[in-house]
């Protein structure tokens, strides 16, 4: 397969387009010793972004680059992209129809409606919502805005990487959760040649791992505690091509370690992250990723749209 990957200049253009419209999310420093590592650890709190996740970046960049005259948008999502696209569409005065799986938390579904969009709840997981969205939009004059496998979505997500560079120019490593892979691809391409970016997947949603092993994106069964946000059955082409080109291997973590990391974030930092957002921290806490004494590590806490306290 061949996918034209965004260049840094494409991501910089997206960041300019988003300036003043999205939040510059903060870094929270924590003592590495608390996590069992000798590194300096910084948490990039993307759960403080509009709509509660990094998805606002890609959704708004996509909406702002739609052809003139577009009247409506449609998408499938585990919930975070749907809420973000509902928000972005409301800013642009567009109709939005969002398809989400019944496995999504009620908080995520309610957020879609709060922004005036229509939520279509589909039995199953993200792949089921995706098929339903495609079928619904097939004969309607609307723009389909993919949750993670769209050039403009990846470029918008990549603005996270540019902020990391500005806020922590000495960062040696950035850890990001990987579901469909838009955040991983955008961040890795933004920081290419500057900071190593490692994608982290739940063992039960390891589509990038499976794709790299097969030599191409392949469909897998998904499940587990983080499936509502990381449960894409097939890795996106942008993430796959990025990992292959940069020779990057994803790190896998268990559901138990994700739950433990989420609990740590709440108990020690009062950061109420959703399970998928705690996935990269789980990699650090379990030693699944190697860090060296004196390293600066940025962990992207990508969303907080699950109100259940761990």
From TrEMBL:
- The keyword Zinc is assigned to this record: no
Mind telling me which residue stretches traverse the membrane in this protein? none
Which controlled-vocabulary keywords does the entry list? Lyase, Pyridoxal phosphate
Cofactor(s) demanded = pyridoxal 5'-phosphate
Statement: the UniProt record of this protein carries the keyword Nucleotidyltransferase: no
Task: Enumerate the Gene Ontology biological process terms.
Answer: isoleucine biosynthetic process; L-serine catabolic process; L-threonine catabolic process
> Which GO terms label this protein's molecular function in UniProt?
L-serine ammonia-lyase activity; pyridoxal phosphate binding; threonine deaminase activity
Task: Give every Tryptophan synthase beta chain-like PALP domain span.
Answer: 19-303
Could you tell me what this protein is called? Threonine/serine dehydratase
Q: What is the lineage of its organism?
A: Bacteria, Bacillati, Actinomycetota, Actinomycetes, Propionibacteriales
